[in-house]
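Side project, low priority. Logging it here so it doesn't get lost.
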Amino acid sequence: MATAEELAKSQREISVAEFFEKNRHLLGFDNKRKALLTTIKEAVDNSLDACEEGRILPEIIIEIVEMSEDRFKVTIEDNGPGIIKKQIPKIFGKLLYGSKFHKLSQTRGQQGIGISAAVLYAQLTTGRPAAITSRTSPSKPAHYYELHIDTQTNEAQVVKDDEKKWAKDRGTKIEVYLEGSYQRGMQSVDEYIKETAIINPHTTIIYTNPKAEQFIYSRATDKLPTLPKEIKPHPHGVELGMLIRMLNNTETKSLQKFLTEDFSRVGPGTAKEICEHAAIPPKTSPGNLNREQAEKLKKGIDATKIMAPPTDSISPIGEALIEKGLKKEINAEFYSATSRPPSVYRGNPFVIEVGIAYGGDIPADQSVTLMRFANRVPLLFQQGACGTTEAISKTNWRQYGLSQSSSSLPQGPVVILVHMASVWVPFTSEAKEALAHYPEILKEIKLALQESGRKLGIYLRKKNKVSTELKKRSYIEIYIPHIAAALKELLGDKGFDDKQVERMLREILESNRGKLEDMKFDPTKNKEFDESMALEIKKKEEEDDSKEES
C-alpha cells in the first residue's frame, strides 16, 4: 500500500503547454485535415486584428506547399504593423500570452492560445521550428526567429535569432512545417478563405493551394471597420467570485468610487442606489467587505436598473457591406441583409447580423448552405452543436417560400449568413467552433432571420406572381387570332378587319408587360404588393411565435 508521502513524490505542476500537448483536440487539432485549417485560421485571425488595429487595409498572402505525403509547409504573410523584437518569442512561443484576454472589446482572438498552439502542433508532428520574420518600419531591419516551445516551462526556445533583408516595409510572416491533409469541400481551407473574404470585405487575400493554383480575393471596400473601444465590465455581467476579486484588487478607497470607476454605466446616483439595495454604506472600503457583504452587493446590483453597456466596443459589418461581400463571392439572383440593434447577454453587448443569397449558381437540391461567423471569423465545424443552427431550424421558413421539415434546416438554393459581433463571444469549447445556446442570443438571431426572411418571402411571392401572369399571357397570345376572328364576327362589318382587331388586342396585352418586367427584374417595384405581403408574412410569424410560447 502506497503512503501519502510516496504519492506526493509523483505529483508536480503541469504547464499549460504540457496540458495542450496531450489535449490538442481541445484547440482544433484533432485530425490532420482540421489541423491544417486551424493553423491557417489562427495566423490569419492575428494578421487581420493587427492590420485593423494599425489602421491598415489588410493584404494577406497564404501559401500551402505539399512537401511529401501528409507533410506541408504553410506560409502566412501580412502587411500589418509588425511585432517588436522582444515580443516575437512570447507571442509565438508561449501559450496563454496576449493582449486581448482582459480587454472588453471586439477582437478575433481572445485567449492568447491560437498561433502558439499552431507552432506547438507543428513542432509535435514534424519536429521543425517555426520561422518568424517581422518588420515594424522601413527604417528598421527585419527580425528573423526560429523557435520551439519548451512544453515543461511554456517558454520559447530560440533556435535562431538574426536580422535579414526583407522587401516589405512592415509586416509579419510565419512559416511552419506540419502534418496535415488537404481536401476540398465545406470544411476545407478553401472554404475558410472564401468565407473570410465574404465577412471581411475590406481585405485582399492571395491564396495558393497545394495544387499550385492561385486565387485572388479582392477587397470590396476601401473603408476599414470602426475600431472597437475598450470598455469596463458591466455590473449585470459580473458573477460573485469575479466581484470579490475586483473588490480585493481595486485601488479605489470607497465602495461608491469602486462602482463608478471599475464598472461601465454606473454614475454616482446609480452607485448610491446599489449601496442602498445592498444595505452597505457608500463610503465603506471595498477591501474590507467580507463574502457575505459581497453577496449583498451582488444582490444590490441585480436589484438596480442599470443602463445597457456602451456599444462602441463592437464593430458590426453593416447591411450594405454584408450584401457586397455576398455578391463578391456568390452568384445569386437575390440578396438581402439585416443588422439588428445592439443587445446584451450577461452584461456583454452584442449585435446579430444576417445575410441571405437566393438562386443563381446556388445548388437547389439540398439543405441551405449555412455560413456561421463570430467577430468576422468563419465557424466551419460543430454546426449541429451551434446555437445559430438551432435558431435557423426553429424558424418557420415555409412562410418565406422555402420547403422545410419539422425543426430542421430548410431546403433550397439559399445561402444563410449569420454573424455575431461581441466583446466576448460565448463559444462551447476552447476550439471556438460553435456558439453557446444563450436565450438572448438565440432570440436576436431568430429576429434577424425573420427580418431577412420576410424580404426573401416578398421576392419569391412577387416572382411567382410574375411567372403566373406571364404564363397567362402566353395562353392569351396563342388564342388572340381566334378571339379576333370571333370579335369580327360578333361586331359585323364595322370598318375593322381581322388584323386590326388582333393588333388592338395585342396592344392591350402589351400595356401591362412593362409593369410585369419591372417586377420580374427589380424586386423593389410595386410597393403596395410588398407591404401587403409583409403584413401577411408578419401575421404568420406572430401565429408561429404564439404557438411556440404555448
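Brief comment: The longest helix spans residues 439-491.
Revisit when time allows.
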